[in-house]
Amino acid sequence: MSTRPRSQRRKYGLTSKRVEQLSPSGIRRFFDLLASMEEVISLGVGEPDFVTPWHIREAAIYSLEKGYTMYTSNLGMPELRQELSRYLRDNYELGYNPDSELLITVGVSEGLDLAMRAIVNTGDEVIMPDPCYVSYSPCVILAGGTPIMVPTSEENNFEISAADIEARVTSKTKAILIGNPANPTGAVIPKDKLLPIADIARRHKLLVICDEIYAKLIYGVEHTCLATLPEMKESTILLSGFSKAYAMTGWRIGYAAASAEVIASMTKIHQYTMMCAPIMVQVAAIEALKSGDASVAEMVEEYNQRRLIIVQGLNNIGLSCFEPRGAFYAFPSIKSTGMTSEEFAENLLIEEKVAVVPGTAFGQCGEGYVRCCYATSLADIEEALSRMKRFVDRHKK
Ligand code: PLP
User: Fold this and answer.
1) Is residue 1 scored above 50 in pLDDT?
2) Gap between the Cα atoms of 227 and 241, Å rounded
């Protein structure tokens, strides 16, 4: 028997090398700082300020009264999958078999993780835009893959270009991952720019994971669901959910729609890890799909008013702002202040008690920008703008 102390006998560190590769979320650090302060106006967290519409909450409450407290099928309740299948047919003319091509997940967050673990082999590459949603790259790394970042810029409306993707395709490329509309920029990739991306996927036999969680939050433009493009349904993993459109972030529910082969693989992981989304939340999601359209339209109307005010306000104070056409984020340039994104966000929080997220939390190409979430009251947006004006005037170069 070895006489060496246990710690010296261990061949590897305590934690996994894959996890060690991940840097802590840049967003979290700001929220921790924010939590220690009072009277802060937060344009930080990316979630609706609305409460979930009453009829959706009521459906969940009623399900509890009726005793819905069990596990459901791993795929999700049959009624929910049928309703989702109907919804995808009515909205996109896409026919997904509710018994084999749809999986109810615990938010798009789980959908992303499952999708990556289901398709990525060690060393596979997944191409994605920079900046992008904070979870994309970590999910690829945790699955054993390598994220390949494609820079995007304000000059190109923060749209990932087909040519830039193609230049990065190698024998190891497995998939392209995009968010449309995008977090943090609010960019919506139009159909004519998606078509050549789909063409690359077809020619190189790549999968496309499309995170369309903001698909319903669109202002004056059309949103094209990637799976509707010619021959793309089979090779697209469509991820979406209820958090943003129905103001249901805390409920934790989303879905994946894909080929039966991919859904079977994702379900294998889901059944051993999550088992199923909570039953009362699934009942609420059925209600949202059946009767939630009017509530979504009302919230979109509100977001649009706020969007116009914040974009104009930011431009007026000298923070030039690309016009976001989706989601609920403005992504102004702060380059005129001479500060880095982190300096800007930190100083603004400390000096004026306004929380925004540094663009670098979403990738290197976010340097020079900050993300301002406008899913907050008009009064708060206006007060935040006047505090930001004071801050920018004081730090003018
Ligand atoms: N995808 C994007 C682009 C997001 O912005 C978010 C949340 O901010 C998520 C996924 C996570 O969504 P969910 O609440 O469904 O897990």
Assistant:
1) no
2) 16
DSSP assignment of 371-393:
EEE--S-HHHHHHHHHHHHHHHH
Q: How many angstroms does the Cα of residue 152 sit away from the middle of ligand 1? A: 20
pLDDT digits 0-9 by tens, 38-50? 889 999 888 999 9
Q: Do 107 and 252 have their domain in common?
A: yes
pLDDT in tens, 119-156: 999 999 999 999 999 999 999 999 999 999 999 999 99
Domain holding 219: CATH number?
A: 3.40.640.10
- Ligand 1, residue 108: give the atom nearest the CA: 15
* Number of domains observed in the structure of the chain: 2
Domain identity same for 117 and 263: yes
Helix segments in 205-324, DSSP class H: 260-273, 279-291, 293-316
User: Within this chain, do residues 180 and 152 fall inside the same structural domain, yes or no?
Assistant: yes
For residues 2 and 355, the model is more confident at: 355
Q: What gap in Å lies between CA 348 and CA 388, rounded to an integer? A: 7
Residues with CB under 6 A from ligand 1: 46, 107-109, 133, 179, 183, 211, 213, 241, 243, 249, 254
- Is residue 11 in some structural domain? no
Considering the domain architecture, whether residues 383 and 248 belong to the same structural domain is answered as no
Please tell me the distance between residue 213's alpha carbon and the centre of ligand 1 in angstroms. Answer: 7
Domain boundary among 273, 291, 309: 291
**Ligand 1 pocket test target in 108, 242, 252, 362 with most atoms within 8 Å of CB:** 108
- CATH number of domain containing 306: 3.90.1150.10
- Where is the domain boundary, 291, 318, 351? 291
* pTM for this prediction: 0.94
My answer on whether 63 and 163 are in the same domain is yes
For residue 249, which atom of ligand 1 is closest to its CA?
14
- Residues 238 and 316 grouped into a single domain: no
- Over residues 247-289, the pLDDT tens digits come to 999 999 999 999 999 999 999 999 999 999 999 999 999 999 9
> Which DSSP helix (H) or strand (E) runs through 372?
strand 370-373
**Tokens standing for 27?**
């967003």
- CA separation for the pair 329, 369 (Å, rounded): 12
Q: Where is 85: in which H helix or E strand?
A: helix 78-92
Q: Which two tokens stand for residue 176?
A: 């392209």
Q: Are strands 254-257 and 102-105 parallel, antiparallel or unpaired?
A: antiparallel
- Mean pLDDT (the chain, rounded): 94
Beta bridge partners of 147: 126
